[in-house]
Amino acid sequence: MLEANREKKIKIHTLAEVDQVTGFIGNFDVRVKKFPRYIDDNKCNGCGLCAKVCPVVIPNPFDENLSARKVADRSFVQAVPPTFDIAVDSCIHCYECVAACDQFAVDFSQKEQYIDFKVGSIIIATGWDLYKIKKYGYGIFDNVIDQLELERILAPNGPTLGHIVRPSDHKTPKRIVMIQCVGSRGEENAHCSQVCCLLAAKNAKLIKSEIPDAEIIVSYIDMRCAGKDYEEYYKRSREAGIIFVGGKVGNVKEDPVTKNIIVTMEDKNSGEILEVIADLVVLSSATMASDGTNQIAKVMKLEQSPEGFLKEFHSRLNPISTKVPGVFLAGSCQGQKSIGSSVSQAKGAASAVSVLVNNEKYKIELFRAVVEKTDACSKCYRCIEACPYGAISIDEKGKIDVSVISCKGCGTCSNVCRSQTIQLRYFRDTQYDDYIDALFEETPAK
Ligand SMILES: Cc1cc2nc3c(=O)[nH]c(=O)nc-3n(C[C@H](O)[C@H](O)[C@H](O)COP(=O)(O)OP(=O)(O)OC[C@H]3O[C@@H](n4cnc5c(N)ncnc54)[C@H](O)[C@@H]3O)c2cc1C
């Protein structure tokens, strides 16, 4: 993000979301909603005086609420832009920040702003969110956390500067249980989140490097370590003394006095039921499409999988394009993947866009939907719902309009149209009727 911010040809809109997208490849009109920061980016010099005088402390979402920030603060050190913002919902409006700021940057009159611009193509990279599941005592027992919270604890710029402590008493945990496939590959969600097996191995190894005598037990259904060097990494984790136990976890209880977590788990190999008293339990929870991914899918009418991930044109032959020409996917918005795969896909999407930029012409389909018998249209708009390419809209007079650029001539619209208002050029229903009549011409009885 910092690097992108330094690049003059990249314009970044922060604290913003895409509100509306209309148009077609080469001519998209985008409307972005920019939320107020209440501190003017152009005036703030990042001195931090506002945070110093702000009397209200709130949980910091950047650290998964494991650390605190002031209401007037910077969410994290490398934030882009490197300026401060005011979490206005928690503000008590004491205006200490206004008085302290010698740049006159604090501005409570800021409102939501809409910014309109035109683009030729769009790459969606809205990523994933963790499935916050009420299972295994998560959200109830202090010492049950998820991998994302553990990542923040392990981060050198995290709430404990990378030193692992358990939330209840800030003591160093000596026995840690990690539970895999929480909320995935089961009743809640059928999909595999793909990165969790390696993620557990990675974080277990990081803990081991800080606390060599820690006992770390990973309870898994099966370890999925496909990918270059990943099996070797898993092997090295076992050699480092991390214990991997195949089987499912049953019960998770808290000792109310020590706040230790008692985990009952099966060991598929021995057939035994184990009871482990852990200082800390870490859940490898499922990853789902992010709220932003769901929102952009709605705005751009893009197809989604049951978990909300955006559907590609073809999972094997064209995994970067969507069905809307000029709209491409990068990273975990399409399905959880490693950073390496996300970067590869992002580079692929960037190349696909540069091909379009350098082409002077764009080929449209010869066979495509055409609107006929407009007066017969019952305005059920099933065609708009059915079109996988987002090619059909309503014009200002309420009439159906098919984009000649976006239509791929699949015929889905004419199939669902009960009034035959929409027909597929060269494949009209009447043409089929004549064809069938000719094939099965009635032979006069002898
Ligand atoms: C706990 C955990 C640990 C992981 N650790 C590793 C690891 O060690 N190694 C590894 O290879 N992979 C790891 N992964 C996977 C890795 O996180 C993903 O590969 C990577 O984050 C995908 O990048 P992305 O840019 O597609 O999505 P994200 O990183 O999710 O980024 C999406 C961005 O889009 C923004 N956004 C969302 N919606 C909108 C919107 N509407 N408008 C504007 N912006 C929006 C979000 O704020 C976010 O900044 C881990 C995953 C998890 C769950």
Pick out its properties.
globular; 3-stranded antiparallel β-sheet; FAD/NAD(P)-binding domain; 11 helices; alpha/beta; 22% helix; 446 residues; binds flavin-adenine dinucleotide; 5-stranded parallel β-sheet
Written overview of the protein:
The chain is an alpha/beta fold. It has four domains: 2-117, no CATH class; 130-287, FAD/NAD(P)-binding domain; 290-358, no CATH class; 369-439, Alpha-Beta Plaits, CATH 3.30.70. 22% of the residues lie in helices and 24% in strands. The protein contains eleven helices and 23 strands. The strands form nine sheets. A five-stranded parallel sheet has the order 10-17-11-12-13. The chain has a three-stranded antiparallel sheet with strand order 1-2-7. It has a three-stranded antiparallel sheet with strand order 14-15-16, with no helix packed on it. The radius of gyration is 28 Å and the shape is globular. The N and C termini lie far apart (83 Å). The model has no long low-confidence stretch (mean pLDDT 94). Flavin-adenine dinucleotide is lined by residues 17-18, 125-128, 130, 147-148, 151, 195, 199, 202, 287, 290, 292, 295-296, 331-333, 337-340, 342.
Global Rg:
28 Å
Q: Which secondary-structure class do the elements indicate? A: alpha/beta
Bound molecules: flavin-adenine dinucleotide
Query: What's the count of strands?
Result: 23
The CATH class designation of the largest domain is Alpha Beta
Helix content: 10-25%
Strand content: 15-25%
User: Based on CA inertia axes, which overall geometry fits?
Assistant: globular
What is the mean predicted local confidence, pLDDT?
A: 94
Number of contiguous helices: 11
How far apart lie the N and C ends? Answer: 83 Å
**CATH topology descriptor of the largest domain:** FAD/NAD(P)-binding domain
Strand order of the largest sheet: 10-17-11-12-13
Question: pLDDT below 50 for ≥5 consecutive residues: which ranges?
Answer: none
